[in-house]
Design a protein that fits this description.
single chain, 340 residues, alpha/beta, TIM Barrel
Length: 340
Amino acid sequence: MKYRLLGRSGLKVSELCLGTMGFGTEAGWGADKETSFAIMDAFANAGGNFLDTANIYKLGTSEKIIGEFVSQRDRDYFVIATKYSLKDNTTNPNASGNNRKNMMRSVEASLKRLQTDFIDVLYLHIWDDLTPIDEVLRGIDDLVKQGKVNYAAISDTPAWVVSKGNTMAELMGWSQFIALQVEYSLLQRSPERDLIPMANHFGMTVTPWAPLAGGALTGKYLKGDTGRIKAESNRRDGNSVRITKEVMAVAERLGVEASHVALQWTRQQGFNCIPIVGATKLEQLHDNLKMVDVVIPAEDLAKLNAASEIDLGFPGKFFKEDGVRQNNFGGFYDRIEKRG
């Protein structure tokens, strides 16, 4: 396993992040404690140190399992990222949302479940479109000053909100968001319109969730696996099937699994990306770990990009028009260095 810097920070994290949403057996699926321990052991033995969880995952069981596991090992080795915002109870209207009151309440509960004095990376989980972004940033910065959180991050939030927040944080000397977690895969490329260019501008690492589109990109549904994704889902529609077949064809040419191609595709898109790979079985993790040695040739990468291309809309599509580039660059577009 190699290590990458998380955003503009000096924090070194493994090139794959272990997603732990499935740690716990609530709702009738997931990994029990023994299996979860085995998965984390295998991940750590492979050099993995980056764990992703949330207060709501498996009703808090995910954090509890991680806390028990890490308490028996070297806590400082692991980079634990968790999230606040979503409800962990329905006792009052401030037991959810992005507000400071819920942030402080949620973090204190996460610290207890994780059996630790500090959270390495705290994500805002989902934007509530209510709380001022300065309230969020000031709250996280206070937690940083208290030593309860090391770094700020954000998930599932419009690009304009994140941009406003990081600009304000830079002006005020608060902790800036260093990572952006969004759904991103060959079946979900809409973050390329605004979110990913914004992350590039601010030097944020993108940590995609569902990089395998819930397993659809492994090709298992085309092989008859019933799985948990309903047949009417857009992850299984005609367009998704077409893209998945291209992934499977590339995988066959390279002699690797379709999952390896789908995961590696996210890492070869020209921006700082650390995909989150979930596992509820030990063999799933072992299989995912193999992808770190996969490199997709340029020709195959171009085929995958073409098969999954989306309409960037305005102004992204407009900027790519030949006439616009001619006027903007005077014919020198291909000879000028571009920013990441």
